[in-house]
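Predicting holo structure, zinc ion bound.
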Amino acid sequence: MHALKWRGIEMAENKDFIIQIKGLQIGKHEYDFPIDGSFFREFENSQILDADLDAEVVLEKGSGWMNVEADITGYVTVECDRCLDDVELPMDFSCSMAVKFAKDLSDDDGDEFIIMDPADGELDLTQFLYDYVCLNLPLQKVHQDGKCNSEMMAKLAGVNSAAEKDDDEVAQNSPFGALKGLFDNKN
Ligand SMILES: [Zn+2]
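Done. Tokens:
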């Protein structure tokens, strides 16, 4: 079968996240997709090490178009930005995409619609789900305060304070450090 074209990248098929749309009646259809760590490990450079997510998908089929809405809840495991240990982050968000059926894929205006060839009998949600989970990761991926790996934190703190000390010594020994002192005195 045809693979869905997503932003010009031909994707490998992941059978688990495919909705058969051929013969699907006009109207709303509900699907439930569990997503685990193996889903994310298929992607190169994925920040997500493990996952226990549930995607409730509602697909509304019209004539010549489809709308897909997903509610995603559960947990993902990533590396903590602070202590580098694994940290579980809760996820709870919704996302959607609009699909337009068109013979000519160059109709694709980029952001509003995904263009699908009407001859394609299936919709692969793999990239859609992956992209939105990644987009919904928090900027700060850290344990709650006090929950970081203290051993690792101590090691990292040791490295940081050594680096800071080096910086101070460099400043004192450099001519610019001396000049800075001069100006400080003037003011
Ligand atoms: Zn941590």
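The pocket of zinc ion is lined by residues 80, 82-83, 85, 87, 142-143, 148-149 (CB under 6 Å).
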